[in-house]
């Protein structure tokens, strides 16, 4: 996953300190693979996964649309060259004045999951398209999104009915099956729920037109994951099963699957030590941890592949930790990480699959460590 371009960059530039290097060629391949896998769906890149201007500009030039969560992300997508009609304000939790700012910037597509939010949108962005997010259980996802977003399908019917009553365009339904979702059947269950909402509203004469199938497409960490093509086929059969010959417009919002495997973090071993002479687990401290961008190691949810110059030699289990003075800054302890016995202080470690959800999760200056530096090549 560290491409030759990334390795060459690191070898010639020798950046000091931890940094992320993203290879745009990989982002381009991912975009084209999504396009091939789901040729009838519009792609809205989830900007939060990695909002580097170079990535946004590349995707805008390839024809991507953008899923944003704030006015700042909307402005980033506009700056990258996307017109307002290619941007959705996909956060279901928005201040009314931010909705108004988005509307002033030309945004006309909004996510909601409650009557209260629909009323904000009708006041601040009159006449806009809205889609209602339904809850999913996140089963099968390595980074589930729990119950924070969405409402039950029966409530989505009420929300969209209200939207129509107060002059909005009741456009469709959305869901997110949970991030790093490797169960292809997750989309089938969610599309079944979406279909129920379509049907209930059609019976009242309200015709929805769009299903936003969210993100969740995985990237490869330590285990192989199905190819985009397999997701495409599973999703297409689920659409056929639930919607028959009347498949609505569809949107996908890949974040992790678009950029995760395009990035590698270079880090350095700061210390290797033990807590007692007879300990059989070594502690390996890196110059990057939970506060430096590896927040998704929370609960040891995401396990990144690590590459060292000693790979292939004998390994032993290690606790892996970051450099800050917070005891929460431990990456892998419940399930120790096997690392080469010959690993030494000062060695470089490449953390693969780190193109998504790293730079933006880095803290500003905890313990004086600067935010994760990124190079997009
Ligand atoms: C975060 C998010 C995504 C991207 O999810 P991935 O699992 O990274 O693909 C897509 N849609 C919405 C609404 C999101 O919040």
Break the fold down into its secondary structure elements and pairings.
Blueprint: H1 4-13, E1 19-22, H2 24-37, E2 41-46, H3 53-62, E3 65-68, H4 71-79, E4 87-89, H5 96-104, E5 109-112, H6 115-124, E6 129-133, E7 141-143, H7 153-165, E8 169-174, E9 179-181, H8 185-202, E10 210-212, H9 228-243, E11 249-252, H10 256-259, E12 263-273, E13 282-286, E14 306-307, E15 315-321, E16 330-340, E17 348-352, E18 373-376
Parallel strand pairs: 1-18, 2-3, 2-11, 3-4, 5-6, 6-8, 8-10, 10-11, 13-15
Antiparallel strand pairs: 1-12, 7-9, 12-13, 12-17, 14-17, 15-16
Helix pairs in contact: 2-3, 2-9, 5-6, 6-7, 7-8, 8-9
Bound molecules: pyridoxal-5'-phosphate.
Provide a concise account of the structure shown:
The chain is an alpha/beta fold and 377 residues long. Helices cover 30% and strands 24% of the residues.
Descriptive keywords:
alpha/beta, TIM Barrel, Lyase, Ornithine Decarboxylase, Chain A, domain 1, 2 domains, eight-stranded mixed beta sheet, eight-stranded parallel beta sheet, binds pyridoxal-5'-phosphate
């Amino acid at each position: 996953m560290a491409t030759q371009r990334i390795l060459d960059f690191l070898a010639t530039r020798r950046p000091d300190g931890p940094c992320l290097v993203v290879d745009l060629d990989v982002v381009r391949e991912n975009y084209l693979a999504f396009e091939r896998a789901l040729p009838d769906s519009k792609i809205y890149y989830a900007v939060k996964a990695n909002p580097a201007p170079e990535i946004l500009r590349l995707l805008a030039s390839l024809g991507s649309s953008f899923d944003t969560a704030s006015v700042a992300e909307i402005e980033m997508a506009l700056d990258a060259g996307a017109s307002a009609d290619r941007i959705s304000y996909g956060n279901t939790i928005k201040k009314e004045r931010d909705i108004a700012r988005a509307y002033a910037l030309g945004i006309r597509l909004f996510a909601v999951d409650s009557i209260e939010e629909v009323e904000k949108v009708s006041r601040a962005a009159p006449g806009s398209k809205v889609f209602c997010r339904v809850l999913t259980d996140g089963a099968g996802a390595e980074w589930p999104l729990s119950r924070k977003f969405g409402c039950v399908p029966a409530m989505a019917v009420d929300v969209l009915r209200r939207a129509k009553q107060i002059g909005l365009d009741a456009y469709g339904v959305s869901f997110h099956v949970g991030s790093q979702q490797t169960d292809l059947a997750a989309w089938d269950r969610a599309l079944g729920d979406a279909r129920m909402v379509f049907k209930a509203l059609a019976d009242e004469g309200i015709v929805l037109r769009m299903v936003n199938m969210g993100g969740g497409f995985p990237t490869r960490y330590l285990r192989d994951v199905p190819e985009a093509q397999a997701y495409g086929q599973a999703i297409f059969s689920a659409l056929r099963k639930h919607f028959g010959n009347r498949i609505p417009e569809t949107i996908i919002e890949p974040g992790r699957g678009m950029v995760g495997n395009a990035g590698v973090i270079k880090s350095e071993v700061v210390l290797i030590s033990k807590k007692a002479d007879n300990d059989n687990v070594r502690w390996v401290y890196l110059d990057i941890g939970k506060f430096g961008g590896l927040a998704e190691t929370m609960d040891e949810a995401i396990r990144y592949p690590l590459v060292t110059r000693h790979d292939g030699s004998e390994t032993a289990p290690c606790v892996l930790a970051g450099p800050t003075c917070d005891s929460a800054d431990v990456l892998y302890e419940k399930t120790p990480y096997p690392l080469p016995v010959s690993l030494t202080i000062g060695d470089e470690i490449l953390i693969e699959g780190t193109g998504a959800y790293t730079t933006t999760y880095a803290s500003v200056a905890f313990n004086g460590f600067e935010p994760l530096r990124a190079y997009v090549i």
